[in-house]
Amino acid sequence: MTAALTLHTYWRSSAAYRVRIALHLKGLAFDSVPVHLVRGGGEQRLPAFAARNPQRLVPTLQHGDAVLTQSLAIIEYLDETFPDVPLLPRDALSRQRGRALAQLIACDIHPLGNLRVLQYLEHEFQLPPDARTRWIARWVQEGLAAFEALLVQHGIGDFCIGDAPTIADCALVPQLYNARRFGIDLAPYPVIRRIEVACAASPAFDAAAPERQADAPPA
């Protein structure tokens, strides 16, 4: 019997969103355990969750007795463990490009606008909401401009790398959702927006969307 997959997630977490996309693309059944990142100071800070993931972050994926952390590492684990519907291209150069694009999002853009960073800016430096929004926009716009340029430089198909979704698309779509939350204009990135349209046509991306999650607030 295949070990069960359980994803500790939060509906609006872009990192958890990446892993949900990967799970759905691979057609893997999994149980979702919501972890509310704001209520009561954040359920990720509770001792039981901290014992599972000392970073106190989502996503955390349990596969049987194994506890997996860090969204991109989780996606690569899923690709190695469940190789059907690969999320990393077959050739080494394309794999490098896919990883580089995903890391551009996950390492260079996302951390600077993450919840704990924004909370620190608010509480430690008393930055008002408009200043925090400008902070986010600064890094998102710079990062997406580089992402767009790399897509043009490398040449693309329907998706970031070729004609099927990869780890890069799993990272990109949640970042675009996050950008829109903060009112960032995506018009300067036509290639990115074209890829987003292709992703939106996939049932896997739709199933992973924040508003589709059981812990999302009513519309």
How would you sum up this structure in a few lines?
With 219 residues, the chain is of the alpha+beta class. Helices cover 52% and strands 8% of the residues.
Could you walk me through the main structural features you see in this protein, from its secondary elements to its overall organization?
The chain is α+β, with helices and mostly antiparallel strands and 219 residues long. It has 2 domains: 5-85, Glutaredoxin (3-Layer(aba) Sandwich), CATH 3.40.30.10; 92-205, Glutathione S-transferase Yfyf (Class Pi), Chain A, domain 2 (Up-down Bundle), CATH 1.20.1050. The protein is 52% helix and 8% strand. It has helices at 14-25, 47-52, 71-81, 92-109, 115-123, 129-154, 167-181, 190-200, 203-208, and strands at residues 5-9, 31-34, 60-63, 66-69. It has a 4-stranded mixed beta sheet with strand order 2-1-3-4, covered by helices on one side. The radius of gyration is 17 Å and the shape is globular. The model has no long low-confidence stretch (mean pLDDT 95).
Search tags:
Glutaredoxin, 219 residues, globular
Tell me, rounded to a whole number, the average pLDDT: 95
CATH class of the largest domain: Mainly Alpha
Number of domains: 2
Report the structural category.
alpha+beta
Q: How many helices does DSSP assign?
A: 9
